[in-house]
Design a protein that fits this description.
Layout: E1 18-21, E2 48-53, H1 70-79, E3 84-86, E4 92-94, E5 99-106, E6 109-115, H2 129-140, H3 160-165, E7 184-186, E8 189-193, H4 211-219, H5 224-236, H6 240-253, E9 274-280, E10 284-289, E11 303-308, H7 312-320, E12 326-327, H8 333-340, E13 346-360, H9 377-388, H10 393-401, H11 424-431, H12 433-437, H13 442-452, E14 458-462, H14 468-483, E15 487-490, H15 497-503, E16 510-517, H16 526-529, H17 543-554, H18 558-574, E17 578-590
Parallel strand pairs: 2-11, 14-15, 14-16
Antiparallel strand pairs: 1-16, 3-4, 5-6, 6-8, 7-8, 9-10, 10-11, 12-17, 13-16, 13-17
Helix pairs in contact: 2-5, 4-5, 4-6, 7-8, 9-13, 11-18, 17-18
């Protein structure tokens, strides 16, 4: 089966603040010579560390719909610099060694970005306005003019010639769509003007891919500076033919799951402390300190190898055997017990910034799509409601979460707020999720299916088949839903589950996974629920939700923000979009003889935060 994305005509654009839990900016301060050896990289060339992670890297484009995943962005965090980063207290701080920005006007909202002289790509080309202009072009949706047509049975694109002649950037971001006029470039600065105020403008856009590399590949120009200039001209002139080529390179070329061929070495160009030096599919990726990096956030350890293992207990075994030095697996009670028994290992626990949930497909021709009932939206709604009423949310918490952390005894009942946050209780009280789906109601589910005239309903569930906790969750959901008459089957992953989540939408009906926050922006959930937005993979569209997010973009009063998000969540519950289940419990463990100064954030990049402060013991040397 070939899997292709369904693309939306003139999709609204924006950078998502949520990533698939399976931001590309560096942060913090590091001494120029962290080990005192005086070499040009500022560190000992002997130091190395191995880190376990659950899902392999598969895209260097962390802001595309396909590539927006924690698995990618934790790696990109070490590879690329940006205008800002979060410190350990979740304060947003400018990285002036890459560049600076300032608000030059409130009416209209106008932001000026200026690149520092030390902002450079690893191939020696200076980072500059072209890089930010490219991201605006990709995220704004201004240039998209085609829509893919696919065969509903096979997923095959049936209008490839039309797509080849058109423009489609694989992105959708409501925030950047507010910048309607082409940004103005002056020297090493670029100025962006919004059509209306936007509360989270500081995290709305950032540098992502090297514009000169995209242009080299798209336009066939060898010289980097000339290529960047040609890209700027193509965008400013609205040169459809050139922008079409640019959009295809931006959307597809940077998706790779192993080391690119030598001819494609420019796909490895980065702007931060590390570069990719080795990459074996589904096994590991090795990052080595970039000796030419001139920013303030230099690598503290020369070589970082991230080894992939989706089995949490397998990560514990690897830590015990010295194969890895730092782990942060999906936690279970058995895992915590096992890791606490290891000698010489430090362990930290606590809630994480990721939450588990189930989302349903609305437009894939499956059991939750009105098309399956002759276009009768009311019948499709009843089938969605019936399935959600069978999901054993509290049972999942009781069996899989509370044994790991006795303080975590309740479900997460908000789509947008972390338990304990200021707005959480108010929104939960208003959204109705606890009333509708607080407990399993098999009888109600049977009645809804009967009213819809739905029989022999099969639900294909997408989840990570290598994740033990998700396997257990699936079995609990399956056992409960089948009591109401559903047939629940696992979707057979075609590439990897994260890629299939956005690309194989015709072939699964429900998705079980986690969203992880990458920022503290109040508008971060916009990308999940707005029509056509980055993380809305399901064809969900609600005009009220879109209008409420329009209000939220310009609202700065917390009380009004809470009311808006309450309205959004009430619509999600009314439409049976899906359900939230629990906030992730976390377990981090590391060998202090190999790596120390580990400092984990509750948002992405989690355990990779503060890599500039890591220190390696003698045992970590090669």
């Amino acid at each position: 089966m070939r899997i292709n994305r369904k693309v939306a005509f003139a999709a609204i654009a924006a950078v998502s603040a949520l990533s698939l839990a399976a931001c590309s900016s560096d942060g913090g301060n590091a001494d120029d010579d962290a080990t005192g050896d005086g070499d040009n990289a500022g560190i000992s060339q002997d130091t190395s560390v191995n880190i376990a992670w659950n899902q392999p890297f598969y895209s260097a484009n962390g802001t595309s719909i396909t590539g927006n995943a924690t698995a990618n962005n934790v790696i990109l965090y070490m590879l690329n610099s940006g205008f800002n980063y979060y410190d350990e207290d979740l304060n947003l701080v400018q990285d002036t060694s890459f560049g600076s920005y300032e608000k030059v006007s409130d009416d209209p909202l106008t932001i000026k970005y200026t690149f520092a002289d030390t902002a450079k790509w690893s191939d020696g080309v200076a980072a500059g306005p072209a890089d930010l202009l490219l991201e605006w072009a990709a995220q704004s949706g201004k240039f998209n003019n085609v829509e893919a047509e696919t065969d509903p049975e096979t997923g095959e694109i049936t209008n490839q010639d039309e797509l080849d002649a058109g423009v489609y950037f694989d992105a959708a971001s409501p925030a950047v769509a507010l910048i309607e006029e082409t940004p103005v470039i002056e020297g090493n600065s670029i100025t962006m003007t919004y059509t209306k105020p936007f509360a989270d403008w500081e995290t709305a856009i950032g540098v992502n891919l090297p514009a000169h590399v995209v242009a080299q590949r798209a336009l066939g120009i060898e010289d980097g500076a000339e290529a960047a200039d040609a890209l700027v001209k193509a965008i400013q002139d609205n040169d459809t033919a050139s922008v079409s080529k640019i959009s295809k390179v931006w959307s597809t070329d940077f998706n790779y799951a192993s080391m690119p061929a030598e001819a494609d070495a420019n796909l490895l160009v980065t702007s931060g402390a590390y570069t990719i030096t080795d990459f074996v599919k589904d096994q590991y990726i090795t990052l080595t300190a970039n000796p030419d990096y001139e920013g303030e956030h230099k690598a503290a350890i020369n070589k970082v190898t991230v080894r992939y293992n989706g089995d949490p207990m397998g990560q514990v075994t690897a830590l015990q055997n010295g194969e890895v030095d730092l782990i942060n697996p999906q936690a279970t009670a058995d895992l915590l017990t096992a890791v606490q028994k290891l000698d010489g290992v430090e362990v930290a626990t606590g809630a994480e910034g990721t939450y588990e949930h189930v989302d349903l497909q609305f437009a894939n021709g499956g059991p939750f799509d009105p098309k399956s009932y002759g276009g009768d939206a009311a019948k499709a709604l009843k089938v969605r409601q019936a399935f959600l009423k069978t999901i054993p949310r509290q049972d999942i918490v009781d069996k899989l979460v509370t044994p790991l952390d006795p303080t975590m005894t309740t479900t997460r009942d908000s789509f947008t707020q972390v338990p304990g946050s200021p707005m959480y209780d108010g929104i939960v009280g208003a959204n109705g999720q606890s009333d509708e789906y607080g407990t399993v109601d098999v009888d109600a589910a049977k009645s809804l299916l009967s009213e819809a005239g739905a029989k022999d309903v099969t639900v294909r569930v997408l989840f990570d088949p290598n994740n033990t906790r998700r396997q257990n969750e699936f079995e609990l959901i399956k056992a409960s839903a089948e009591q109401a008459g559903f047939k629940v089957v696992p979707y057979e992953v075609q590439t990897d589950w994260g890629t299939d989540l956005s690309n194989a939408t015709d072939f699964y009906d429900a998705a079980l996974f986690g969203w992880q926050s990458t920022s503290t922006a109040v508008t971060e959930s916009d990308a999940n629920y707005r029509t056509g937005a980055t993380n809305n993979f399901y064809g969900y569209s609600n005009k009220t939700v879109d209008a409420e997010f329009d209000k939220l973009q310009v609202e700065t009063d917390p009380a009004a923000q809470e009311e808006i998000l309450s309205n959004v969540e009430a619509e999600l519950v009314k439409d049976a979009f899906g359900v939230t289940i629990f906030q992730f419990p976390g377990v981090t463990a590391w060998n202090p003889e190999k790596i120390s100064n580990v400092s984990k954030l509750t948002i992405a990049p989690t355990i990779f935060y503060g890599f500039w402060n890591w220190t390696a013991g003698e045992a970590a040397s090669e």
